[in-house]
Amino acid sequence: MRITIGVITLFITTMGLAQFGTQKVVPNILGDSIFNESPEFFTMEWKKGTTLTKLETDIYIDIDSTGLQSVNMLVDEKGLPVLYNSNISAPVCADGECRLMEIRLYWNILGRYAGFDWIKGLPLTKHDHDEFLEADYLKLHQLLIDDNSILKRREIEDLVETPKDSIMADVDGISGATKEEVKESVVSGALYSCYIAWNLVHGEVKSEIMNHTLSLMSYEMVIGMLYSNNVDYQFFALNTLNEYQYEDHYIRVAEIFKTGIPLVRTFIVKSLPRSFWKSDELQKPFWECFSIIDVNSRSLMLDHLEKASESVIESISAELQIMTKNQLKKYLQDLKERGNLSAVTMINLEVFAISENATFVYLVKEFLEGKN
Amino acid sequence: MKLFASLFCILLVNLYAVSQDVLIEAESFDDPGGWVVDPQFVDQMGSPYLMAHGMGEIVRNARTKVEFHKKGKYNIWIRTMNWAPGSWEAPGRFKLKIDDSVLEKTLGTRPDWGWEYAGKTKIKKNKKVEIELIDLTGFNGRCDAIYFTTSNKEPPSGPNNLTSWRKSVTGEPNTPELTKTYDLVVVGGGIAGCAASIAAAEQGLKVALIHDRPVLGGNASSEIRVHTLGIYGNFERILKMLDTEHYPNGSPEAQLDQNKRDKNVKSYDNIDLYLNWKAYDAIAEDYTVKFVDARHTSTGERMRFNAPYFVDSTGDGWIGFWVGAEFSYGRESADTYGESWEEWGELWSPKKPDNVVMGSSVLWRSREMETRQEFPKVPWAMAIAKNHEAVNGEWQWEFSRNDLNQIDDAEEIRDHMLKAIYGSFYNAKKNSENENRKLEWVSYLVGKRESRRLVGDHIFTFNDVLENRKFPDAVVIEEREIDVHYQTVLQDENNPDFISEAIFYKTPQYYIPYRSLYSKNIDNLFMAGRNFSCSHVGLGGPRVMRTTGQMGAAVGLAASLCKKYDVNPREIYTSYLKDYLELIEIQKIEKTQRN
Lengths: 372, 595
Fold this sequence. Notes:
The complex is a heterodimer. Chain A has helices at residues 6-15, 134-145, 180-183, 191-201, 205-216, 219-226, 231-240, 243-248, 250-259, 262-271, 274-278, 280-287, 295-302, 310-317, 325-338, 343-353, 361-368, and strands spanning 2-4, 34-35, 41-42, 52-63, 67-75, 81-94, 97-107, 113-118. Chain A is α+β, with helices and mostly antiparallel strands. The radius of gyration of chain A is 27 Å and the shape is elongated. Chain A starts with a strand and ends with a helix. By secondary structure, chain B is α+β, with helices and mostly antiparallel strands. Helices cover 24% and strands 26% of the residues of chain B. Chain B has 16 helices and 30 strands. In chain B, strands 1, 2, 3, 5, 8 and 10 form a 6-stranded antiparallel β-sheet that branches. In chain B, strands 14-13-12-18-30 form a 5-stranded parallel β-sheet. A 4-stranded antiparallel β-sheet of chain B has the order 4-9-6-7. Classes of the chains: A alpha+beta, B alpha+beta. Chain A binds chain B through residues 147-148, 152-153, 206-207, 210, 235, 239, 261-263, 266-267, 270-271, 294-296, 299-300, 324-327, 330, 356-363, and chain B through 85-87, 110-112, 342-343, 345-347, 350-352, 354, 401-404, 409, 412, 481, 489-493, 497, 501, 503-504, 506.
């Protein structure tokens, strides 16, 4: 399985620069086979004492000028995949002079960017041969994290001003100044290095890694992902679990619901099996998060009001001030359909109706006055 | 206008002599002063209204004169809304002046639309009274109507009761007094509606183009200022009369293109242009639209439009909605049409369907002045703006939330954006480098991306693009990438909830079939614009305005063949496709002489 970095080919051809040779697997200049330290720039959690062993895969990144760069899988002591990495040598050229960019890239097991190491003694450099400073590496890391970067969908030529109105500044690979809107995202003076690195990280290799992982996927791995702190892993696991597995792990699902990003939360509410909405016990931990979750997740939860227990209705009656207008309307409509309200709910409504700081007091007042 | 207002009141007084009630619709004021007529939310709150859109500077008084035929002590009720209720002074406060006397009561303070009691006044018989609305803040105070009554009863507020009450008070008959008949009635004067009108008119059809704004172009107009994107396809000649340059969204350069567009559409003798007319109903019999009823947004005058064929280019699919056309709203599940994109998962196409759509934008800009400019505190905006600072707003200023419907809750969406804008600008003004900045322009119109999508014989989807389907009836051609937007707050709760991001999918050239441009179940209804037949992801590419313009032009030509052969839109595909495709080629060269 080989992935070609076409854009690099295009660029080198365009610039008419010397080729470094093709179709040759580049020897691993680092030679590491055991990893027991976190990559220097890393998006994930590296538990102390972790030791990973490198295994070869059949995934390669083909860089026309430097050959096939192997992608390795790093496994834990149980042999389960934890990361993928590749030692990249890629040419960066400017003004007819080329040098190799040496960088070790990491992906998580779903093919998402996980981090990088720069190679001691072979630092990344800019157009003017200045070495990257710590801040530059950090900026590169931030750029690589952004999978929807401005560099996406663009040819390198689109990222620089046309030569006629450019000043030869702030570039590292092509004649032209970096466009203003691109500058914010890339390391100053290192547009081309950034461009290459971003396209390596977010190229076809992502889906190849994903497919490789899927071919090894087991229930144990899925559950490991569910209990990890990585949002991508949680999402993958939540998307993979069946109805019964949701029930088996409902406490963990509720934890993710409590602490996750809104996108994950809304996915959870939409994915909870019907059995959850028939069981007070299964619903409970989700309703308990009502006051701390985001507005979209809250709306989705309110779609299930009809099946909620009286105690849930009571607990929500103490949270009226956080609801949007439509959410409050939905809640009051549910109360109307339920008929008899508990004393706790009534008291909470009455207290809210005389509060001074809440926005939609009038809705509750009108409800109590029987207007709604 | 002045004449109308007076006559209106005489009519009321004559019809309801006993109750001595006078209803004054604010949008019908003789002189709106600095207030603007806002007809965007009529279908939700019941009427166009006057709004003091001063961007923080108090606007000039709106004035009108009303003749009272009966003397009496009148209670005065104002239909208004505090658009940002909370523990602060309402942002849109105003007062009412009757002749020389300013009523004590500050108005615009009641939450949600309803009647606010303004006070009492004595009026002599046959007295002509001058009424003024006095803006106190410059921050979007709003007045829908003023009701003088000698009774002590508050007028009804609920939407259904209000509508019937209004009808009874004004004595308005069910049917508009005036009916006009055309070959084609186009509702919605965005780029799609304009293109449909021109294409049909050039083929000799007598066209009515009904548009609820004073200028044409919809999202491309100088009132909303989104530049047109996409290619011309088969309709370069027509679309060049309507499109825009590629200036930044929100740029005042939109005015030049506005002038071009208005002039071009008006140059067709057989297009009757009904600017400031808003369609409010349509009726179908036997799955055939019989007529559309429309009302002037200021005068309240009504008209019925008959035609054998109708184009729904309202953007919200209103005509289709009123006549029972099939439609969709929200996101289909990824499996519905197989539109998943692994890399973007839920953000692109969800595992389970939902009511999420791309949001609406309100564009805005500020400019540097020579001297220091003050901007008032906006406490009612800060819960939305939080710490966000900005001096301009481009397309990323977009708002969508899953409890808000882009049609039913459009006013709340617009108001949310106003809070975001005023709050962010206030934050930016605290920075000394912005002390000379002043708000130059803030649109008060919601620039919608997505709402109802009417269902045609073909539902255009992402797969039509991926598989590069070359339909036999491919009439729209596009090559701009598909982009689907999402709110960035979904990925990080610390982000402002009014900023979006776009996911781009680079495409080869793709095609939209004619079958996506007419209704599946309403026999004589075409659609063009963002309400064409497509999935949520399918809309991601062709929602831009040169593409929707292509749809319009394609529909206008099809309508001309419908008339020629006396057939319905579907039969153009089943029986006259060759003629249709030939006509598309022929029209590339203009033959019509315009004025």
